[in-house]
Amino acid sequence: MSLLRDRSVLKVGVACLEDGALLLADHAAPVRGCVDLRHLAGRHPDKARLLRRPGLAALSQYLLGVHLSKGRRLRCSNWEADALSADQQEYAADDALVGALLFRALLEPKVPELTRSTWPRVLSACQGLVDCKYKPSHAARQHADPAVSPPPSAPAPANRGGSRTVPTSYQQSKQVSAGYQLRKSQLYDNARLLAPDDQPLSVVENSKARWYVYKGLGDIVQEDPLVVKLRFEPAGRPQQEGNHGYYYLQEKDNCCVRCGASDGYVRKNIVPQEYRKHFPEIMKSHQSHDVLLMCVSCHQESNILDLKMRQRLAEECHAPIGTEADVKVREDQALRKVKSAGRALLKSRDKLPPQRAAELESVLRDYYGVSTITDDILHSAANMCTNHPNSEYMSHGEAVYRHFCQPGRGLIQLERRWRQHFLDSMRPARLPELWSVDHNHAKIRWKIRRADWPLRVREDIWRRCIGSEYWDEKDEGPVMGPGPGAGRVREREEEEDGQDVETEDGGEEIDVEEDGEVDVELEDEDEELEDDDGEDVEVEVEGEVDVQVTEEGVEEKVEENDNRTVNGYGGAAST
């Protein structure tokens, strides 16, 4: 497979590009680096004679003096058999060998010898021909033998020199790009947004960065590359989210993530929209992690491989694709028969045999329960609607979504599987750093636990997204810290019966210092603590209490009026 994908290894033959397209469609095996020998024949000094019969057998006979057996019976034999016959093996081997010899013979006027030192001259001679579909030019059709050539088609567009314009790559040819809307501009402008304190916030498009300037929310710091500093404090900082946040701070290349092609690319949704559109809103955030750039050729191959993944999900989730149950609207066959009878009698009654006309009238009388067929009945029957909604309809994407919403599964597993499928099937070589199959999953857990929703709603969203049947209070939140790979800060909610949790609006103020020390100022004079035995311990506090986080727990030191120490995290309260 790697040899077929390698564009630097030339594959030569007649119509080899079309054969490669069949391999891609049938076996998901991409073939790159194809050179059609007919292109080289058109550049040969004796092209007038070569183009008369540009088939492999004719070229072999003229240039090599070798006769190839091209009998119809052998060419149309069963090439999908598990074991090929001796004649089939010889036929295939001769084609491959003759193709290589013809390549050498056609290049001989320009490159007399094929060696490592002359290989750059070979590539120069094939410039503009690699992965380019052959289409006979007007001159080639003039030289063609009418006894063996197909009827001439419309002449190819010509440039000012009169020669045919040849696409520079197969990815840009109309045959491949049909149905694709190629980008006319770069996707990633890599404009930077800065916080008021000059800390990087994200890398965005130029239009989005200039929107903040237009709205008076930011100022341009630098034009090229564009840097905009915001005038307001953002809701969050990406540095607090570890790898998840740092992914959006890096610049991205405008190239195919698979092969590195820098032109003719389109967007690729790693998780298909037919699944993601059913996800809860918390998993449908506007983020670019699962939208990557691919060239048309790689995009086609990826879509073909995605079909296999969809088929596996269809079998696993009992979500068939393309069956009768997978249609939104069904046609009522009884109504269709009535409508057909009405239209036939209304438009072609004079042309119908009497017996057939009587049969159609009988159909209408039975349906409408009348003895006489009037024009109103005929018009009503001819214009009736025969379609009705399919009450059993459920799209493939929705069925898969519901399957993964069940306990023990979770939608993040479906998201992870599609990401892993992309990595395994395409093996992208230019994937952005920090791209991960688990991207955003820790943040989703944290956001659900912190959401201002009723408890039952949070538990329902948790079960659908995470797959757990229980409310996992110990699950860690998003990665926090100064850089990629930093540790985690566990944020937990503690709500006990009869106990109020005070915030900064109440009697407790918490300041987090840069060195990790937490200062807690208590406004109440008395605090009640509880020791290991459940007994209340009263501590009178009139000053400040410093709380320092250590590896062994939390140590609170009461200063000014008292030097008593209280050990948190399971330690006994000493007075």
From TrEMBL:
Residues 493-545 have a biased composition (Acidic residues). GO terms for molecular function: 3'-5' exonuclease activity; nucleic acid binding. Keywords: Exonuclease, Hydrolase, Nuclease. Residues 165-178 have a biased composition (Polar residues). GO terms for cellular component: cytoplasm; nucleus. The keyword Nuclease applies. Residues 3-107 form the 3'-5' exonuclease domain. Residues 141-178, 473-575 are annotated as: Disordered. GO terms for biological process: nucleobase-containing compound metabolic process. The keyword Nuclease applies. PANTHER family: 3-5 EXONUCLEASE, EXONUCLEASE 3'-5' DOMAIN-CONTAINING PROTEIN 2. This is Exonuclease 3'-5' domain-containing protein 2.
